[in-house]
């Protein structure tokens, strides 16, 4: 997504992504390092328990601030060793009251990447990624249609982001610019999903068409198709029109 549209999404994301703003828990979290890489932020309430497993987690110093940090034991030197060692500790902590997120164990792994997602240092159970505060990547699918089928074949190929003309207009008297979408086709409609009442998180609330964490070993498009079929029941033949719309960091 280019131009004004990118600015719109950037501003909306900054409003929601407030973890690093003053007063948030990021100020008390402890950095987590694997080898020379800073890969996560761990809440202090977890550190003591993790450091009781020195074969996996050891205390160190953050080279940029000389403050205490948590490091993966340097004797774990490759992807397989790191993944297995962390998995073993997290499984042992599943019943620990101090680690409620581990009760949501999914048997699904997320990759811990560095160098622009070109190198995976290890993979961790989805529930454990919250404990270690590592970056997680998710795929969201937006479904849309036009009433009366008023959409050209070219528009179907390029996708919604190129159909919409997004403008960013600043008001001089306001501290923040006003966000407006112009030239949105009046016959544009979005498919909105309603979460199952049996879901443990946000049951019965509205949601986008489908979404899911990016499982280690899957490409973004593979994950998008998997989630679309699993969550929205979209048949595989209809997913040929699936197009990437952009990335929000």
From TrEMBL:
Signal peptide: none annotated. It comes from the Eukaryota. Residues 13-135 form the DUF4743 domain. Pfam families: DUF4743. InterPro entries: DUF4743 (IPR031804), NUDIX_hydrolase-like_dom_sf (IPR015797). This is DUF4743 domain-containing protein. It comes from Schistocephalus solidus (Tapeworm). The lineage of its organism: Eukaryota, Metazoa, Spiralia, Lophotrochozoa, Platyhelminthes.
């Amino acid at each position: 997504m280019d131009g004004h549209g990118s600015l719109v999404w950037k501003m909306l994301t900054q409003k929601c992504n407030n973890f690093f703003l003053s007063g948030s828990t990021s100020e008390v979290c402890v950095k987590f390092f694997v080898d020379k890489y800073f890969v996560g932020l761990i809440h202090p309430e977890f550190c003591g328990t993790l450091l009781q497993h020195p074969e996996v987690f050891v205390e160190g110093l953050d080279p940029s601030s000389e403050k205490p940090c948590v490091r993966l034991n340097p004797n774990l030197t490759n992807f397989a060793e790191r993944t297995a060692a962390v998995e073993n500790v997290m499984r042992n902590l599943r019943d620990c009251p101090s680690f409620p997120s581990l009760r949501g164990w999914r048997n699904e792994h997320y990759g811990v990447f560095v160098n622009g997602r070109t190198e995976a240092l290890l993979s961790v159970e989805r529930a454990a990624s919250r404990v270690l505060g590592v970056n997680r990547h998710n795929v969201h699918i937006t479904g849309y249609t036009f009433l009366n089928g008023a959409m050209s074949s070219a528009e179907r190929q390029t996708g919604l982001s190129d159909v919409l003309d997004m403008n960013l207009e600043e008001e001089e008297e306001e501290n923040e610019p006003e966000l407006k979408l112009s030239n949105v086709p009046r016959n544009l409609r979005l498919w909105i999903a309603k979460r199952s009442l049996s879901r443990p998180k946000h049951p019965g609330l509205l949601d986008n068409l489908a979404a899911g964490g990016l499982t280690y070993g899957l490409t973004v498009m593979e994950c998008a198709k998997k989630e679309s079929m699993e969550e929205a029941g979209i048949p595989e033949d209809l997913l040929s029109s699936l197009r990437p719309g952009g990335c929000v960091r």
